[in-house]
Amino acid sequence: DVKVTQSSRYLVKRTGEKVFLECVQDMDHENMFWYRQDPGLGLRLIYFSYDVKMKEKGDIPEGYSVSREKKERFSLILESASTNQTSMYLCASSLLGLAAGELFFGEGSRLTVL
Amino acid sequence: DAKTTQPPSMDCAEGRAANLPCNHSTISGNEYVYWYRQIHSQGPQYIIHGLKNNETNEMASLIITEDRKSSTLILPHATLRDTAVYYCIVRVADSGGSNYKLTFGKGTLLTVNP
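ok -> structure tokens follow
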């Protein structure tokens, strides 16, 4: 089975801190994604990557950056955390081509910024 | 990607079939219909997808109308563990670059009652 592992289930950070959210997948998937989920707003795409060192902005990239140095790992970086970035963050991966719509999600990382 | 319309909530009795509708009247000829579900406090889970023909797998069946303007996800024997938010999404299956993303709406909260 595909496994997408997010490094932390729960984090609490202070305003202005630099935050790293790590995601690792074990099925050699080309595509990786970062979403955030907020009540009433659903899932919104932050960034995605379809290859090592490649990244594309999603719908809400402001305040975030990403890194994909290895195929299995996709990191989301909050350079200076703010309270409006308190959210559930979900990482996902998929293959290219016809299977690209079959996303495998991690368990999520709930971030609270105080 | 075409927009979808789903009822916000539905109830189903345990052991009965759950039929979840989705309207996608503006779907294009090369767009597939995908279904995901999200159980509370977990990441979304891929269920099934299809283009024109009805599809069945170990989790569910997908019925797509002949004009492709709507579809129904069927859980043949719903259990309490099927209580979740179900998302219907349409997208081009084999698209590159910035079209890889899936756009999640608000979905349907299915509650399976004992």
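Chain B is about 0% helix and 45% strand.
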